[in-house]
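Changelog-linked ticket: adenosine-5'-triphosphate example.
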Amino acid sequence: MTAADGLLTVSDVRHAYDGRSVLQGVDLTLNPGEIYALLGANGAGKTTLIRTLCGRLKPDAGTVRLNGQDPARVPSARAVLGLVPQEIALYPHLTVSENLATFASLAQVPRAAVADAVQRAMSLTRILDRAHVPVRHLSGGYQRRTNIAAAIVHQPRLLILDEPTVGVDIDARAALDSVIRGLRDLGVAILMTTHDLDQAGGLADRVGFLKAGRLVLEGAPAALLASAFGERMELVVQLSEAPNPEAAERLGQEGLAPVEQRADLWARLDSDGYESAGLLHTRLQAIGLRPREIRVRAPSLHHLFSQVTDGTVAG
Ligand SMILES: Nc1ncnc2c1ncn2[C@@H]1O[C@H](COP(=O)(O)OP(=O)(O)OP(=O)(O)O)[C@@H](O)[C@H]1O
Ligand SMILES: [Mg+2]
Protein backbone atom coordinates (compact mmCIF):
# COMPACT_ATOMS: atom_id res chain seq x y z
CA MET A 1 0.00 0.00 0.00
CA THR A 2 1.31 3.45 -0.88
CA ALA A 3 0.23 6.68 0.81
CA ALA A 4 -1.69 7.59 -2.34
CA ASP A 5 -3.86 4.49 -1.97
CA GLY A 6 -5.29 5.61 1.35
CA LEU A 7 -7.22 3.19 3.50
CA LEU A 8 -10.16 3.12 1.14
CA THR A 9 -10.23 4.51 -2.37
CA VAL A 10 -13.17 4.17 -4.71
CA SER A 11 -12.87 5.44 -8.28
CA ASP A 12 -15.58 5.70 -10.85
CA VAL A 13 -17.54 2.75 -9.50
CA ARG A 14 -20.57 1.80 -11.58
CA HIS A 15 -23.15 -0.86 -11.08
CA ALA A 16 -26.48 -1.88 -12.56
CA TYR A 17 -28.96 -4.49 -11.36
CA ASP A 18 -30.66 -6.22 -14.29
CA GLY A 19 -29.75 -3.34 -16.59
CA ARG A 20 -30.99 -0.71 -14.14
CA SER A 21 -28.16 1.63 -13.25
CA VAL A 22 -27.73 2.16 -9.48
CA LEU A 23 -24.15 3.47 -9.13
CA GLN A 24 -23.13 5.79 -11.94
CA GLY A 25 -19.53 6.72 -11.26
CA VAL A 26 -18.80 7.10 -7.56
CA ASP A 27 -15.46 8.42 -6.26
CA LEU A 28 -14.74 8.25 -2.56
CA THR A 29 -11.66 8.34 -0.34
CA LEU A 30 -11.60 7.64 3.34
CA ASN A 31 -8.77 8.52 5.70
CA PRO A 32 -7.85 7.12 9.11
CA GLY A 33 -9.56 8.91 11.99
CA GLU A 34 -12.41 10.49 10.06
CA ILE A 35 -16.15 9.98 10.22
CA TYR A 36 -17.86 10.08 6.84
CA ALA A 37 -21.64 10.04 6.62
CA LEU A 38 -23.14 8.81 3.38
CA LEU A 39 -26.54 10.40 2.87
CA GLY A 40 -29.19 9.79 0.27
CA ALA A 41 -32.86 9.03 -0.18
CA ASN A 42 -34.21 5.47 -0.05
CA GLY A 43 -32.90 3.58 -3.04
CA ALA A 44 -30.07 6.06 -3.75
CA GLY A 45 -27.56 3.20 -3.76
CA LYS A 46 -25.93 3.51 -0.32
CA THR A 47 -26.12 -0.14 0.64
CA THR A 48 -25.07 -1.16 -2.87
CA LEU A 49 -21.97 1.01 -2.53
CA ILE A 50 -21.20 -0.53 0.85
CA ARG A 51 -21.50 -4.02 -0.63
CA THR A 52 -18.88 -3.11 -3.24
CA LEU A 53 -16.54 -1.74 -0.53
CA CYS A 54 -16.77 -4.99 1.38
CA GLY A 55 -16.07 -7.05 -1.72
CA ARG A 56 -19.51 -8.64 -1.49
CA LEU A 57 -20.50 -7.20 -4.83
CA LYS A 58 -18.15 -6.82 -7.77
CA PRO A 59 -19.02 -3.55 -9.51
CA ASP A 60 -19.53 -3.54 -13.27
CA ALA A 61 -16.79 -0.94 -13.66
CA GLY A 62 -14.39 1.18 -11.62
CA THR A 63 -12.04 0.25 -8.83
CA VAL A 64 -12.29 -0.30 -5.10
CA ARG A 65 -9.05 -0.41 -3.12
CA LEU A 66 -9.16 -1.46 0.47
CA ASN A 67 -5.72 -1.11 2.03
CA GLY A 68 -4.39 -1.04 -1.54
CA GLN A 69 -6.14 -4.25 -2.66
CA ASP A 70 -9.33 -5.19 -4.44
CA PRO A 71 -11.61 -6.70 -1.76
CA ALA A 72 -13.65 -8.61 -4.37
CA ARG A 73 -10.52 -10.45 -5.55
CA VAL A 74 -8.35 -10.54 -2.43
CA PRO A 75 -10.59 -11.61 0.45
CA SER A 76 -7.76 -11.10 2.98
CA ALA A 77 -7.95 -7.36 2.24
CA ARG A 78 -11.27 -7.39 4.13
CA ALA A 79 -9.43 -8.03 7.40
CA VAL A 80 -8.97 -4.26 7.84
CA LEU A 81 -12.71 -3.77 7.70
CA GLY A 82 -15.54 -4.25 10.18
CA LEU A 83 -19.14 -4.13 8.97
CA VAL A 84 -22.11 -3.35 11.19
CA PRO A 85 -25.18 -4.43 9.25
CA GLN A 86 -28.48 -2.63 9.60
CA GLU A 87 -30.18 -5.60 11.22
CA ILE A 88 -28.97 -6.94 14.54
CA ALA A 89 -26.88 -9.96 13.52
CA LEU A 90 -26.18 -11.67 16.84
CA TYR A 91 -26.96 -15.03 18.44
CA PRO A 92 -29.93 -14.17 20.67
CA HIS A 93 -29.49 -17.04 23.13
CA LEU A 94 -25.77 -16.47 23.72
CA THR A 95 -24.52 -13.87 26.17
CA VAL A 96 -22.77 -10.73 24.99
CA SER A 97 -19.28 -12.11 25.70
CA GLU A 98 -20.12 -15.49 24.13
CA ASN A 99 -21.32 -13.70 21.01
CA LEU A 100 -18.15 -11.63 20.81
CA ALA A 101 -15.91 -14.65 21.34
CA THR A 102 -17.72 -16.38 18.48
CA PHE A 103 -17.26 -13.37 16.19
CA ALA A 104 -13.59 -13.12 17.19
CA SER A 105 -13.00 -16.74 16.18
CA LEU A 106 -14.85 -16.22 12.89
CA ALA A 107 -12.59 -13.22 12.23
CA GLN A 108 -9.49 -15.41 12.80
CA VAL A 109 -8.45 -13.78 16.06
CA PRO A 110 -5.88 -16.25 17.50
CA ARG A 111 -7.43 -18.35 20.26
CA ALA A 112 -5.05 -17.04 22.93
CA ALA A 113 -6.02 -13.45 22.08
CA VAL A 114 -9.81 -13.90 22.07
CA ALA A 115 -10.49 -13.10 25.73
CA ASP A 116 -8.56 -9.82 25.56
CA ALA A 117 -10.16 -8.92 22.23
CA VAL A 118 -13.63 -9.48 23.70
CA GLN A 119 -12.86 -7.33 26.76
CA ARG A 120 -11.48 -4.55 24.58
CA ALA A 121 -14.51 -4.54 22.26
CA MET A 122 -16.92 -4.47 25.24
CA SER A 123 -14.98 -1.66 26.85
CA LEU A 124 -14.90 0.47 23.67
CA THR A 125 -18.63 0.04 23.15
CA ARG A 126 -19.39 0.42 26.90
CA ILE A 127 -21.27 -2.82 27.33
CA LEU A 128 -19.01 -4.44 29.97
CA ASP A 129 -21.87 -4.31 32.48
CA ARG A 130 -23.92 -6.61 30.22
CA ALA A 131 -21.15 -9.13 29.44
CA HIS A 132 -23.07 -12.10 30.86
CA VAL A 133 -26.56 -11.17 29.72
CA PRO A 134 -28.09 -13.14 26.83
CA VAL A 135 -28.48 -10.83 23.87
CA ARG A 136 -32.22 -11.46 23.65
CA HIS A 137 -32.62 -9.79 27.06
CA LEU A 138 -30.81 -6.59 26.07
CA SER A 139 -32.49 -3.27 25.27
CA GLY A 140 -32.38 -2.09 21.66
CA GLY A 141 -29.58 0.38 22.42
CA TYR A 142 -27.38 -2.30 24.01
CA GLN A 143 -28.08 -4.66 21.12
CA ARG A 144 -26.90 -1.97 18.69
CA ARG A 145 -23.70 -1.48 20.66
CA THR A 146 -23.13 -5.23 20.88
CA ASN A 147 -23.60 -5.35 17.09
CA ILE A 148 -20.81 -2.77 16.83
CA ALA A 149 -18.64 -4.66 19.32
CA ALA A 150 -18.98 -7.77 17.12
CA ALA A 151 -17.70 -5.78 14.14
CA ILE A 152 -14.64 -4.35 15.93
CA VAL A 153 -13.51 -7.43 17.84
CA HIS A 154 -10.71 -8.04 15.28
CA GLN A 155 -9.57 -4.39 15.52
CA PRO A 156 -10.41 -3.21 12.01
CA ARG A 157 -8.99 0.10 10.77
CA LEU A 158 -12.18 0.87 8.89
CA LEU A 159 -15.64 0.47 10.38
CA ILE A 160 -18.71 0.64 8.16
CA LEU A 161 -22.13 1.10 9.75
CA ASP A 162 -25.28 0.82 7.64
CA GLU A 163 -28.00 2.87 9.36
CA PRO A 164 -26.83 2.46 12.95
CA THR A 165 -29.63 4.53 14.46
CA VAL A 166 -32.75 3.04 12.93
CA GLY A 167 -35.22 2.37 15.73
CA VAL A 168 -32.95 3.78 18.44
CA ASP A 169 -34.26 6.22 21.05
CA ILE A 170 -32.56 9.52 21.78
CA ASP A 171 -30.50 8.36 24.79
CA ALA A 172 -29.30 5.25 23.02
CA ARG A 173 -28.42 7.38 20.01
CA ALA A 174 -26.26 9.67 22.14
CA ALA A 175 -24.49 6.59 23.53
CA LEU A 176 -23.92 5.27 20.00
CA ASP A 177 -22.56 8.62 18.86
CA SER A 178 -20.05 8.68 21.67
CA VAL A 179 -18.94 5.11 20.89
CA ILE A 180 -18.43 6.12 17.24
CA ARG A 181 -16.46 9.23 18.25
CA GLY A 182 -14.30 7.17 20.61
CA LEU A 183 -13.38 4.79 17.78
CA ARG A 184 -12.61 7.71 15.47
CA ASP A 185 -10.34 9.19 18.14
CA LEU A 186 -8.41 5.91 18.18
CA GLY A 187 -7.72 6.41 14.47
CA VAL A 188 -10.43 4.14 13.06
CA ALA A 189 -11.99 5.44 9.83
CA ILE A 190 -15.78 5.38 10.04
CA LEU A 191 -18.17 5.22 7.13
CA MET A 192 -21.83 5.32 8.07
CA THR A 193 -25.05 5.67 6.19
CA THR A 194 -27.90 7.43 7.90
CA HIS A 195 -31.23 9.07 7.28
CA ASP A 196 -30.71 11.00 10.49
CA LEU A 197 -29.41 14.34 9.26
CA ASP A 198 -29.10 15.75 12.76
CA GLN A 199 -26.84 12.88 13.67
CA ALA A 200 -24.80 13.31 10.49
CA GLY A 201 -24.44 17.06 11.04
CA GLY A 202 -23.24 16.61 14.61
CA LEU A 203 -21.01 13.61 14.12
CA ALA A 204 -19.49 13.54 10.65
CA ASP A 205 -16.24 15.20 9.63
CA ARG A 206 -17.46 14.89 6.05
CA VAL A 207 -20.80 14.05 4.49
CA GLY A 208 -21.54 12.93 0.95
CA PHE A 209 -24.95 13.12 -0.75
CA LEU A 210 -25.65 10.21 -3.04
CA LYS A 211 -28.31 10.93 -5.62
CA ALA A 212 -29.24 8.79 -8.59
CA GLY A 213 -26.01 6.84 -8.21
CA ARG A 214 -23.64 9.82 -7.98
CA LEU A 215 -22.07 11.72 -5.09
CA VAL A 216 -23.51 15.11 -5.98
CA LEU A 217 -22.19 17.03 -2.97
CA GLU A 218 -19.41 16.24 -0.54
CA GLY A 219 -17.58 18.08 2.21
CA ALA A 220 -17.47 19.13 5.85
CA PRO A 221 -21.01 19.97 7.04
CA ALA A 222 -20.13 23.52 8.15
CA ALA A 223 -18.33 24.29 4.89
CA LEU A 224 -21.17 22.90 2.76
CA LEU A 225 -23.73 24.94 4.69
CA ALA A 226 -21.63 28.11 4.46
CA SER A 227 -21.21 27.76 0.73
CA ALA A 228 -24.88 26.97 0.10
CA PHE A 229 -26.42 29.55 2.44
CA GLY A 230 -23.71 32.04 3.39
CA GLU A 231 -24.93 34.26 6.21
CA ARG A 232 -28.59 33.72 5.45
CA MET A 233 -30.88 32.42 8.13
CA GLU A 234 -34.04 30.39 7.72
CA LEU A 235 -37.32 31.99 8.80
CA VAL A 236 -39.90 29.39 9.69
CA VAL A 237 -43.50 30.45 10.16
CA GLN A 238 -45.91 28.20 11.96
CA LEU A 239 -49.56 29.13 11.36
CA SER A 240 -52.35 28.22 13.73
CA GLU A 241 -54.17 26.54 10.86
CA ALA A 242 -53.65 25.70 7.19
CA PRO A 243 -54.11 28.82 5.03
CA ASN A 244 -56.91 29.07 2.45
CA PRO A 245 -55.78 29.29 -1.20
CA GLU A 246 -55.80 33.08 -1.17
CA ALA A 247 -53.68 33.27 1.98
CA ALA A 248 -51.37 30.62 0.56
CA GLU A 249 -50.83 32.83 -2.44
CA ARG A 250 -49.94 35.78 -0.20
CA LEU A 251 -47.47 33.62 1.71
CA GLY A 252 -45.91 32.72 -1.62
CA GLN A 253 -45.62 36.41 -2.45
CA GLU A 254 -43.66 36.84 0.79
CA GLY A 255 -41.18 34.31 -0.58
CA LEU A 256 -42.38 31.59 1.77
CA ALA A 257 -42.79 27.97 0.71
CA PRO A 258 -44.34 25.05 2.59
CA VAL A 259 -41.94 22.92 4.61
CA GLU A 260 -41.98 19.13 4.90
CA GLN A 261 -45.30 19.01 3.03
CA ARG A 262 -47.07 20.59 5.96
CA ALA A 263 -49.70 23.18 5.19
CA ASP A 264 -49.16 25.04 8.48
CA LEU A 265 -45.36 25.38 8.23
CA TRP A 266 -43.76 27.83 5.78
CA ALA A 267 -40.16 28.97 5.41
CA ARG A 268 -37.77 31.16 3.48
CA LEU A 269 -34.11 32.13 3.59
CA ASP A 270 -33.37 35.67 4.66
CA SER A 271 -30.20 37.69 5.11
CA ASP A 272 -31.70 39.87 7.86
CA GLY A 273 -33.09 37.00 9.93
CA TYR A 274 -34.32 38.54 13.18
CA GLU A 275 -35.21 41.92 11.78
CA SER A 276 -37.23 40.33 8.97
CA ALA A 277 -39.03 38.07 11.42
CA GLY A 278 -40.56 41.10 13.15
CA LEU A 279 -41.60 42.71 9.87
CA LEU A 280 -43.01 39.48 8.56
CA HIS A 281 -45.12 39.05 11.67
CA THR A 282 -46.73 42.45 11.13
CA ARG A 283 -47.33 41.82 7.43
CA LEU A 284 -48.90 38.42 8.01
CA GLN A 285 -51.23 39.84 10.64
CA ALA A 286 -52.21 42.61 8.22
CA ILE A 287 -53.50 39.98 5.79
CA GLY A 288 -55.42 38.23 8.53
CA LEU A 289 -53.00 35.39 9.23
CA ARG A 290 -52.09 34.60 12.79
CA PRO A 291 -48.62 33.07 13.00
CA ARG A 292 -48.33 30.90 16.08
CA GLU A 293 -44.57 31.09 15.96
CA ILE A 294 -41.88 32.60 13.76
CA ARG A 295 -38.52 30.96 14.25
CA VAL A 296 -35.17 32.17 13.02
CA ARG A 297 -32.62 29.42 12.67
CA ALA A 298 -29.39 28.60 10.89
CA PRO A 299 -30.03 26.36 7.88
CA SER A 300 -29.17 22.74 8.64
CA LEU A 301 -28.33 19.66 6.62
CA HIS A 302 -32.11 19.09 6.40
CA HIS A 303 -32.36 22.20 4.32
CA LEU A 304 -29.38 21.31 2.17
CA PHE A 305 -30.62 17.77 1.75
CA SER A 306 -34.03 18.89 0.51
CA GLN A 307 -32.33 21.23 -1.96
CA VAL A 308 -30.15 18.38 -3.19
CA THR A 309 -33.08 16.01 -3.53
CA ASP A 310 -35.24 18.46 -5.44
CA GLY A 311 -32.30 19.44 -7.59
CA THR A 312 -32.06 23.12 -6.63
CA VAL A 313 -28.42 22.59 -5.66
CA ALA A 314 -26.23 21.35 -8.46
CA GLY A 315 -23.46 18.89 -7.79
N1 LIG B 1 -30.01 -7.38 -5.24
C1 LIG B 1 -30.70 -6.46 -5.92
N2 LIG B 1 -31.27 -6.76 -7.11
C2 LIG B 1 -31.95 -5.82 -7.81
N3 LIG B 1 -32.13 -4.54 -7.41
C3 LIG B 1 -31.57 -4.18 -6.24
C4 LIG B 1 -30.84 -5.11 -5.43
N4 LIG B 1 -30.41 -4.46 -4.34
C5 LIG B 1 -30.85 -3.19 -4.44
N5 LIG B 1 -31.54 -3.02 -5.57
C6 LIG B 1 -32.14 -1.75 -6.04
O1 LIG B 1 -31.09 -0.81 -6.22
C7 LIG B 1 -31.45 0.48 -5.74
C8 LIG B 1 -30.48 0.92 -4.67
O2 LIG B 1 -30.68 0.13 -3.53
P1 LIG B 1 -29.83 0.30 -2.21
O3 LIG B 1 -30.28 -0.73 -1.26
O4 LIG B 1 -28.38 0.37 -2.54
O5 LIG B 1 -30.31 1.77 -1.74
P2 LIG B 1 -30.11 2.51 -0.34
O6 LIG B 1 -29.58 3.87 -0.68
O7 LIG B 1 -29.31 1.66 0.58
O8 LIG B 1 -31.61 2.66 0.18
P3 LIG B 1 -32.17 2.66 1.69
O9 LIG B 1 -31.95 4.05 2.21
O10 LIG B 1 -33.60 2.37 1.50
O11 LIG B 1 -31.44 1.61 2.48
C9 LIG B 1 -32.89 0.36 -5.26
O12 LIG B 1 -33.72 0.79 -6.29
C10 LIG B 1 -33.05 -1.13 -5.00
O13 LIG B 1 -34.39 -1.52 -5.20
MG1 LIG C 1 -29.66 0.81 2.45
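Closing comment: Example verified and attached. Residues 17, 22, 40, 42-48 surround adenosine-5'-triphosphate (ligand 1) (CB under 6 Å). DSSP finds ten helices and 13 strands in the chain.
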